[in-house]
Amino acid sequence: MKTYTIHQKMSLGEIVSAVPKSADILKNYKIDFCCGGHRSLEEAAYEKGMNPETLIGEINGCQKETNYADTTDFTQLDNEKLIIHIINTHHSYLNEQLPFISRLASAVLRAHGKAHPELYDLYKDFHKLKTELEQHLIKEEAILFPAILSNQEEAKCLLEVQDEHEVAGDILGKLREHSQDYTVPAGGCESYEKLYQLLEALESDIFQHVHLENNILFKRL
Fold it and tell me: Rounded distance, CA 196 to CA 185, Å?
């Protein structure tokens, strides 16, 4: 069985690239592996008050349960194939889900905003994220990705995109705070539950999206 040796000094980005299922473990501990993927496992663990060996043990455990034959090794995809995957999987997901979540957030705010004023902050920050992401996807598809594939210099655009990743990560953190880690309050309706489920799924998809770019694609440039 294929396994990787994980050690404390490895960066989070390296670990998730080698063992994709480790992303679920890091998310459970609210450890940022996309924008914060440059940090070592040791550093991230101590920030959470954890013993690094605990994380290593859990990651090694998930390796034993992973069938790598059924897992795409994104580090082995060339730039063109990786970019196609990012567009077809993550960009398509955002283009479909962002408008739907927007409509649902409006409905939930109208129904529950009086009893739960934190929904106003959640609504505002979600739409800030939506606006950021919509222009971000266009910039990647129209400028950055074509430049990468044609070996053009696009250092300024690359830095802008990386900065936008940080902004998105900060807003996702605020959404978690507003929602108490996506905990639906007593009396929340099915739409309320659906909204929080979709926002949490959105967070997970963005983490993977940014990981593929920051920790794999951009590392090659």
Answer: 11
In angstroms, the CA 195 to CA 63 distance is: 32
Decide: 4 and 180 in contact? Cβ < 8 Å: no
Burial class (CB in 10 A: 0-12, 13-18, 19+), 180: exposed
Can you tell me the distance from the alpha carbon of 132 to that of 167, in angstroms, rounded to the nearest whole number? 8
> What single letter denotes the amino acid at residue 171?
I
Query: Percent of the chain beyond pLDDT 70?
Result: 95
- How many CB atoms neighbour CB 149 within 10 A? 12
Asked whether 8 and 41 are in contact (CB, 8 A), the reply is: yes
pLDDT of 94 > 90? The answer is yes
| Cα–Cα dist 73/41, whole Å | 21
Angstrom CA distances, 217 to 9, 116, 220, stand at 21, 41, 6
Give the type of residue at 42.
Answer: E
- Reduced to 3 states (helix: H, G, I; strand: E, B; else coil), residue 172 is helix
CA distance 51 to 10: 15
Which token pair is 139? 């910039």
pLDDT of residue 1: 47
Return the DSSP state at 213.
I
Does the model's pTM come out above 0.85? yes
Q: Answer yes or no: are the C-beta atoms of 25 and 62 closer than 8 Å.
A: yes
Question: Rounded to the nearest 5 degrees, what angle is found at the Cα of 204, between the Cα atoms of 54 and 13?
Answer: 55
Among 3, 15, 20, 9, residue whose Cα is nearest residue 52: 9
Burial of 164 (0-12, 13-18, 19+ CB in 10 A): middle
